[in-house]
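Good morning,

Attaching, inline, the backbone tokens for the sequence recovery test we're adding to the shared suite. The designed sequence is right after.
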């Protein structure tokens, strides 16, 4: 599931989750990032040494003696002790060396007590300032690592990026098998991710839950009064609502200007449905040859209002089956069929007129399964009293869950939401922002942000989470079942199953966005097509998927630039003595003259000239 290194942008990119100049991010391989940090830390250390030249000059000026004659060592005793401080400052190459030298100077012997205390105070203050300079740059050298932002990277536009779906070729006899294989692989990926990373998990050492920008998409569950379907087909008077609330597009890992301003909301309103209204007929061995004598195939017909498309489902009464029979359908109704009120026997009570709004059906049976105890669960209803070798059979031959599947888009920048729609949403940019009618950039920013998500919403349905899997794979109840015997059921088991399927749907959305950056391995290009191939801004889309890469490190580009620029500036300023030496002596001020006369060679020359004068006299 991990993307290759070739799908990562190396260099500077804009992280729109950050503001202003801080959005600029530099991504490098781990090796190059370590080398850059080592260079910056070394650079700061060098600057710390060179900038001491500036600091010592400032301290020299601040603590310069008031009297003009700098070189007269025979004046008052106080100036005898002031002069060594300046000599040490002037000639120390490091702040630490200056601090040690100044402390030693402060404890010279032979001075009067009052003067000695005064000089100790001055030299101690200077040594503390010198030590502070050194410690500051040591700390700054260590703090260069704070420019590391983590391992968040952004995808690089590649020739294989996009949303890849099976391409229906009528001449391909094996197309259905190929389609089903891809769908099952995607579902199993999402299922594995949920098991390891949702519901407070994420502790597995062999499964990486940190690759996506959000470990999971949170959602809430609640109960709602009333049946979500017409014709009073529900078994209960309440509905079970699974709702993500408003989720920022940026949480999916999409990195665009409006990703944190546009939201989506996904909702499933579900309820158990009675099977009696949809009974069609009973078939026996007299009707069809594949039934054994005594077997009955009870058939149910679900008319959801789709032209020439009804759902026929059969349930055998065979007691030989020791596993759950699980089937799921998504009834997406064409918007063109909703011009007049519909009268289909099975339909949602609050129909939406956009996005092919319809319902999902989950059909569950298992005539050979027995239970250890009775249950009042509206789907796992176990109350039948019959003689069996062990346990109690299911009360109903067919158990049905129906869901009203909805999707919505909202904009934070103007507090506007589009009407609810089905799972095939369409939108107009002007519905979200009137400026998009005249402002091409506003329209483009909305389209870039929503294009990927819109193409993936249809795969967030409850049936997509089941994906034609057997009950032993898709049901949580099978974790406490063995050889057709259900040891235990959770309270409200049907809600637990829906919560898990909804989590798989959200996980699938996350992973699908992540996989957009690169074509999945093993995909047959002759049987697949890229839904984004004809999108004019495909390169922008392909370069806008954020994820976490263990092989890369991202740093603050502004932080790198600031360190380099400030360091270069201080290095340049540290050569100020060269500039001073170019100024004629007659233009030097008192401080500059004292600075030059306190240099070691100048002192040595002064001493020699005094000795020569004394010898000549």
């Amino acid at each position: 599931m991990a993307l290759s290194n070739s799908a990562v942008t190396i260099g500077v990119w804009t992280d729109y989750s950050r503001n202003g100049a801080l959005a600029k991010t530099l991504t490098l391989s781990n090796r190059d990032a370590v080398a850059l940090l080592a260079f910056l830390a070394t650079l700061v250390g060098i600057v710390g040494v060179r900038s001491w030249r500036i600091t010592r000059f400032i301290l020299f000026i601040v603590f310069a003696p008031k009297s003009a004659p700098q070189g007269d060592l025979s004046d008052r005793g106080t100036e005898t002790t002031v002069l060594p401080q300046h000599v040490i400052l002037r000639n120390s190459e490091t702040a630490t060396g200056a601090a040690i030298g100044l402390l030693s100077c402060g404890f010279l012997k032979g001075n009067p007590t009052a003067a000695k205390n005064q000089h100790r105070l001055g030299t101690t203050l200077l040594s503390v300032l010198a030590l502070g300079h050194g410690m500051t740059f040591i700390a700054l050298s260590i703090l260069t690592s704070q420019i590391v932002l983590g391992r968040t990277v952004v995808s690089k536009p590649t020739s294989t990026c996009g949303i890849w779906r099976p391409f229906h070729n009528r001449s391909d006899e094996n197309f259905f098998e190929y389609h089903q294989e891809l769908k099952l692989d995607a579902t199993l990926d999402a299922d594995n991710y949920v098991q390891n990373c949702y519901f407070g998990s994420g502790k597995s050492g062999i499964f990486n839950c940190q690759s996506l920008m959000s470990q999971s998409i949170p959602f809430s569950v609640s109960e709602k009064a009333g049946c979500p379907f017409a014709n009073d087909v529900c078994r209960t008077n309440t509905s079970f609502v699974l709702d993500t609330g408003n989720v920022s597009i940026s949480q999916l890992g999409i990195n665009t200007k409006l990703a944190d301003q546009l939201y989506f909301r996904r909702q499933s309103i579900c309820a158990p449905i009675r099977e009696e209204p949809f009974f069609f007929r009973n078939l026996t061995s007299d009707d069809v040859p594949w039934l054994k004598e005594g077997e009955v195939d009870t058939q149910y017909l679900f008319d959801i209002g789709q032209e020439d498309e009804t759902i026929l489902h059969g349930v055998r009464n065979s007691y030989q089956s020791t596993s759950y029979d699980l089937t799921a359908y998504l009834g997406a109704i064409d918007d063109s069929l909703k011009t007049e009120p519909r009268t289909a026997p099975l339909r949602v009570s609050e129909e939406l007129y956009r996005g092919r709004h319809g319902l999902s059906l989950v059909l569950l049976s298992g005539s050979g399964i027995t239970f250890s105890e009775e249950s009042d669960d509206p789907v796992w209803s176990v109350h039948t009293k019959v003689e069996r070798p062990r346990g109690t059979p299911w009360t109903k031959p067919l158990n049905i869950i129906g869901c009203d599947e909805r999707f919505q888009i909202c904009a934070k920048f103007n507090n506007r939401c589009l009407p609810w729609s089905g799972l095939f949403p369409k939108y107009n940019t002007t519905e979200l922002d009137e400026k998009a009618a005249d402002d091409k950039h506003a329209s483009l920013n909305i389209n870039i942000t929503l294009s990927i998500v819109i193409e993936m919403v249809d795969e967030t349905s409850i049936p997509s989470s089941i994906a034609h899997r057997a009950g032993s794979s898709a049901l949580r109840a099978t974790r406490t079942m063995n050889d057709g015997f259900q040891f235990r059921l959770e309270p409200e088991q049907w809600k637990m199953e829906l919560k898990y399927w909804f989590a798989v749907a959200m996980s699938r959305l996350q992973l699908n966005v992540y996989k957009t950056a690169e074509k999945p391995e093993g995909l047959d290009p002759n049987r697949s097509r890229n839904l984004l191939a004809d999108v004019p801004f495909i390169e922008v889309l392909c370069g806008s998927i954020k994820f976490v890469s263990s092989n890369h490190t991202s740093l603050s580009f502004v932080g790198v630039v600031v360190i380099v620029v400030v360091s270069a500036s201080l290095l340049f300023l540290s050569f100020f003595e060269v500039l001073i030496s170019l100024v004629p002596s007659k233009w030097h001020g008192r401080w500059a003259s004292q600075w030059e006369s306190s240099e070691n060679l100048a002192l040595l020359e002064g001493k020699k000239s005094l000795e020569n004068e004394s010898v000549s006299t």
